[in-house]
Amino acid sequence: MSEVILDVQDVTKTFTVRHGGAGARGRIQAVGGVSFEIRRGETLGIVGESGCGKSTLARCIAQLLPVSSGSVAFNGVTLTGLSRRQLRSHRREMQLVFQDPYASLNPRRTVGDIVAEPMRVHHRGTSEQIRDRVADLFRLVGLDVSSLVRYPHEFSGGQRQRIGIARALALNPQLIIADEPVSALDVSVQAQVLNLMADLQDELGLTYLFIAHDLGVVRHVSDRVGVMYLGELVEMASAEALYQAPAHPYTEALLSVAPELDDGRARTRERIVLAGDVPDPSDKPEGCPFHPRCPVAQDICRRVKPTLEVADDGRAVACHFPRRR
Amino acid sequence: MLWFAVRRITSAILVMFSISVLVFLIFFATPGVDPAARIAGRSATPAIIAQVRHAFGLDRPLPIRWALMMDHLFIKQDLSSYVNIGSRVVPQITQAAPVTLSLVIGAAVIWMILGVAGGVIAAANRGRFIDPIIMFVGIAAVSVPAYWLGEVVNLITQGGLHHSIFSWVPPSGFVPLTQSPGEWALHLIMPWLTLAALYAGIYARVLRAELVNALNEDYVRTARAKGLSERRILLRHALRCSLIPIVSLFGLDFGALVGGAALLTEVVFGLPGVGLLTYTSLQNLDLPVIMGCVMYGAFFVVLANAVVDIAYAFLDPRVRVV
Amino acid sequence: MSFATRAGVIRAVDGLSMSVERGETVGIVGESGSGKSVSMYSILGLLRDANVTIEGSVLFEGREILGRPDSELRAIRGKDIAMIFQDPMTALTPVYTVGWQIAEQIRQHTGASKKQARKRAIELLAEVAIPDPARRVDQYPHEFSGGMRQRAMIAMALSCEPSLIIADEPTTALDVTTQAQILELLGQLQQKRGSSIVMITHDMGVISEVAHRVVVMYAGRPAEIGTRTQLVREPRHPYTWGLLGAVPRLDSKRTRLITIPGTPASPLDVPEGCAFAPRCAYRFDRCEERPALHGDDHLDACWLEEPDKVRLRRAIEEAS
Question: Domain ends where: C161, C179, C208?
Fold first, then answer.
């Protein structure tokens, strides 16, 4: 087994928000005690519904947001608590790809400039070397080198996401944190970008932290998958095991209702339609966060919060009554 | 709601306190400005100036002088002018305020009616000939300076045509509402129209832009899918949402105008309002009057903002405080 | 149907013929720019622009509705044909209560009094399973969650007992678990009331779970029309193969996805001949000519011979 590249320990992120007129300050725990490791060369998928804290988690890991507690270690170096200056050299090894390729590219700069910028900022080579590198990157992500001098609005959504990926790769990072990289794209284009990301991983030995709400996409790209609910990891296992036999009732329900092509090959699973909405993170339920919507909740679930228990097979579940198969 | 009021009043007091300190420092602590010399007159001997300085408390430390002035202005209400000795500040303002309020409130009613009507008609007819016509009239009204328009209005109504079609327009001046409501309105009608022209033009243009945006919103598509008439969609759905920015604009403009920004209109039409008072006091460097006028203006700006907040909450449930 | 724009005339929808039977759900699937939404908006007169021209014929319950004056269409919209939109965040007017907005539609089409309409609005909210409807009726859209807002939209659509509901990406903006709730609700209501649904979506998974029949659109033209089973199990058009192959599956191992090269054709610049040909791996000489939609109950617009289609499709299936 290869070495651990990213070690996330008990990361918690709490926001203080003002709501109501009485100046009452509420505390929203967006991420609550999340721990996991990523090994070099693997893809860890994080899946969850909107508001589950997966994007906040990504930002905390990338040190774009300070954690409230816990630690993030990258290549054995603890990043949390480092100064901006100290972070700089570590940060370039860890790059982000964002959801919205429309919003994350400066509209007034040519795409060649956009991709070259990180190298200029970090003084990587002469302007000539940088120019060559940008051209290489464009070829790498399947873009025409002649389009270097064009502006972001001249590209389609899929091409813009390729530009975003090229920019992320500019400094030869080891880890790519991709936050919903394909959810704004059409299906056929989405498939192209997913294939590109898989090719780049093989070619460059990249490690991915892949965050998305689409179960199929996450299944497709990930070696291991973590499921988040209300800011907490409720289950984590190999993609195969998780999708074949989900142990947490939330994972099970989520998988059972994901729309699937009824082409005779699909599984025949009973649909579990959960009642109600995800609770407001500022008003997290006592005990297990999932208990108000859980079809198998017992009395203990309302009182005692289950911890994420790691079983022998490496599967971790935070549930008092996990499904055993 | 109570919390809202408490917060508002606290912030109002804070704002007025800071403004009073600021104005005080600008006019009293600026080197080269010596109120005592002003009060004492042009040919005063140093001894007289020193005497005046002592009599007016001008030789005491700045914070004390500020406190004394506030005491005279707000509590004793007997602060008097440095220039026209004996003439008190508070009565001057209470005499000028009704003039300005009459002018601005009347004009505000007119410009809101004209502005909203113009904006709605233009938005409803976008793409047709009436839309650019309204927008052109709007921009023309915005571009014409108030004092120029006022002078032209005077020239027409008081000059050549005064003896024919404009014989009903009285000479400039002010008649209090309590004295004769008819005369009050008649004296103010031309100033109202002059002042309203500028703002009606701006409001019509802003509202039209807001409405055109609103008409592209998803909820308007929903309203169409419900089978509602275009008229209803425009007036009940789009307009209601578009009025929100108009209201905040109105709060700012109204507060500023009541606070003295209607000066030019007041001068042109000979209306003895707060603008005119501020202007004269600034010219004479009559510090107590300046302070009084500024405090009065600040009060109305703060008040107008509070009213806007309440109107906001009424129009937009999303900002309603619990 | 075409738009006149500064860039020239855009044929946003071109040669779409389809029918919806009573009680049936027809899915229209396609990527962005495929004309799936505009086609439905246009027949209802929702595209209010002098630059839009629509040709052809739209029969609703045996009556021609195309070219009718807006006043007549208004009487149909919201009453006989109701719509549900994609983004429940923006589809309700933010400054009125949910109940008011439902009541507004009821009062528009029936002579109901304010009181009756409000009572009906509460009943409708209860029918779409909104908890505590008597209280919720007086709340504003921003006080509802995304899923509840979409339920409110459905309640509004149902308010005048329409015979046809057009749902434009009704679950795209929602989470998976909420999507499941909404799809289940729509299914239940359809069974109870026997209304027809046209479901516009880009999601083949959703289509294959709810639609009886499916229309696949590409660049404003229908590429393939058939029953759900035909479309998903025996797709005939190479574009449909691509669409199905591009969907990452929950049950299969990590493999390469089948992709369609290039990007969806822009309605501004629809290729000559078969619109899909430039992205098609199987194109040949004939594709320079535009293929007609052909077939009996399972139609497609592709020049490939029937046996070739079956052979190619098998090959793709085995590869994945």
Answer: C161
